[in-house]
Design goal:
Blueprint: E1 3-9, E2 13-20, E3 25-32, E4 44-45, H1 47-65, E5 72-77, E6 83-85, E7 95-96, H2 104-113, H3 115-122, H4 131-141, H5 143-148, E8 151-153, H6 155-164, E9 169-170, H7 171-174, E10 180-181, E11 186-187, H8 189-194, E12 205-206, E13 211-214, H9 217-223, E14 230-232, E15 235-236, H10 237-244, E16 252-256, E17 261-267, E18 279-282, E19 289-295, H11 299-309, H12 311-320, H13 324-330, E20 343-345, E21 363-365, H14 373-397, E22 404-408, H15 415-425, E23 429-432, H16 437-449, H17 456-468, E24 469-473, H18 477-502
Parallel strand pairs: 1-5, 5-15, 9-12, 16-22, 22-23
Antiparallel strand pairs: 1-2, 2-3, 4-7, 6-8, 10-11, 13-14, 16-17, 17-19, 18-19, 20-21, 23-24
Helix pairs in contact: 1-6, 2-4, 10-16, 11-12, 11-14, 12-13, 14-15, 15-18, 16-17
Length: 509
């Protein structure tokens, strides 16, 4: 039986899993890694810490699966983690990751200087998230680091370098940097020139399923991955989760309910009308693009509520052995669809899709003394689902014809939340047995990469998603009608909060 290792390098942890050729997950491992904030708005991580976490998580998964041979390995990783390496492949500084916001001014400058190029070639406006804006910041503020750097890599590419000794990236990860031309599928020299970075310092481009090298003896000793195992180019985490949830055709939308919520759909075409409204990038599947909507506080909204208002449930969980989140969601039995009039706006960390406003903040609205905790929990589940509906509505306005929702990550464990999503979207929802969609997608990319078949990734997705498909939820007409009305109130409230945020005021300003 062939086995494949998928590794996902996330913002706070690495997850690894072993997948067999039938699509069953045989074993998993995980390991955390630290995040540093040297100044307000800055976010950095050590590539060495990433590697240690990869070694630990991979070793756990392989030990639990039994150390039999692997047929392939692939890595997915957080987008826009910028790694600067010297001529010995050693980091010259910690990586600036996607969370880092120091390049706000540089992003504004790029939008002012290159509006037509960004619209036509990148198909996304610049923001501080992007590696291209971070490079310009380094050029202006830390030029000595760029002078020492001989190679620029993204997060998962550094792991691939440690695994194989080879410099490489894939088109999905590259297409999210501001440095990639989605028209020509190549690097974009004009934006590299803005930061005075020679083109030759960027790695060669590959498709996600290309074999870029094999596991070295040193990497095998560190990770437990057998020496000589083929390593694929891999993918950015958004692309990997779209593979892991089967979002490769235009009628399926993938929704994750992790800390943030990702709403992802495949498309055959780029759409200029999506500029400044959604993110667009390369898919791992040939001739496909990804449209991405982002819910900044997806599962984070419930986690925040549990942390601040879930002390009773935590005490009950300690006594009963049940999960505190399960007990908290059970409170919704005292509520009903529409949360008895309570609205929650899930903008605890600002808003991405569809408002693009980092200053926006969340709120409970229409709360009375007669409301109980179950109403507030119900409102949190619904508020996140309304923000998902914002994304899905926008995709449909841009031409997507969406028929089914694939739900994964932590929030998908809750039948109650899954049913709310189905009702709010008026679409059937299917959960995935394996909730770590990006790690699963990476393993699927590894499986396709060693296959001699043309279009192997499509066959792999069909096989694995069929095996991994879990619970089904059908939208309920009566509840959906209630949510249609409540969603209209949510949109009105969000517009009011958005106006306050852009005026520099709070709700009482």
């Amino acid at each position: 039986m062939n086995r494949y290792l998928g590794i996902d390098l996330g913002t706070s942890a690495v997850k690894a899993l072993v997948l067999d050729e039938s699509g069953r997950v045989l074993a998993k491992g995980s390991a955390g890694h630290p995040l540093a904030h040297p100044e307000v708005g800055w976010s950095e991580q050590s590539p060495g810490d990433w590697w240690q976490a990869v070694a630990s998580a991979s070793g756990q998964a392989l030990a639990r699966a039994g150390h039999s041979p692997l047929s392939g390995v692939a890595v997915s990783g957080q987008l826009n983690g910028l790694v600067l390496l010297d001529d010995r492949f050693e980091p010259v500084a910690d990586a600036l990751i996607w969370l880092d916001q120091r390049a706000v001014s540089e992003a504004a400058d790029l939008n002012a200087r290159y509006p037509e190029l960004l619209r036509a070639a990148v198909v996304n406006p610049a923001s501080a998230i992007y590696a291209g804006a971070k490079l310009l910041w380094l050029h202006r503020h830390r030029p000595e680091l760029l002078e020492r750097a001989r190679h620029l890599l993204l997060a998962k590419d550094y792991i691939n370098l440690r695994l194989t000794g080879e410099l490489a990236t894939d088109t999905s990860d590259a297409s999210c940097t501001l440095l990639y031309d989605l028209r020509s599928d190549d690097w974009l020299p004009e934006l590299l020139e803005a930061a005075d970075v020679p083109l030759e310092r960027l790695p060669p481009l590959h498709h996600s399923t290309d074999v870029i090298g094999r596991v070295t003896a040193a990497a095998a000793e560190a990770t437990g991955i057998p020496r000589g195992t083929p390593v694929m180019a891999g993918a950015g985490d958004v692309t990997a989760l779209s593979v892991g949830s089967g979002a490769i055709d235009e009628d399926v939308v993938s929704v994750t309910l992790g800390t943030a919520g990702h709403v992802v759909v495949a498309s055959r075409n780029l759409t200029p009308a999506g500029y400044e409204r959604i993110w667009q990038m390369r898919h791992a599947v040939p001739e496909r693009y990804i449209r991405l909507g982002l819910v900044m506080s997806g599962g984070l909204s419930l986690a925040w509520f549990e942390r601040e208002l879930g002390a009773e449930e935590r005490r009950q969980a300690t006594v009963s052995g049940r999960d505190a989140y399960e007990l908290l969601i059970a409170r919704t039995a005292s509520s009903e669809p529409g949360a008895r009039g309570v609205l929650f706006l899930p903008f605890l960390e600002g808003a991405a899709t569809p408002f693009q406003e980092p200053a926006l903040r969340g709120a409970f609205i229409n709360v009375a003394s007669s409301h109980v905790k179950g109403d507030l929990v119900q409102a949190v589940l619904e508020g996140v689902a309304y923000n998902v509906r914002d994304c899905v509505t926008l995709f449909e306005e841009l031409g997507s014809d969406l028929r089914e929702v694939r739900l994964s990550e932590g929030g998908s464990r809750s039948d109650t939340w899954c049913q709310v999503v189905a009702d709010v979207l008026r679409k059937p929802v299917v959960t995935m047995h394996e909730i770590d969609a990006s790690a699963l997608g990476a393993a699927m990319i590894a499986m396709a990469g060693v296959s001699p078949e043309p279009d192997a990734l499509r066959r792999v997705v069909s096989t694995v998603v069929r095996t991994q498909a879990g619970r089904h939820f059908t939208p309920r007409t009566e509840a959906a009608n209630v949510y249609d009305r409540a969603y209209g109130r949510y949109r009105q409230a969000a517009a009011r909060l958005l106006a306050w945020a852009r005026e520099g005021k709070g709700p009482t300003g």
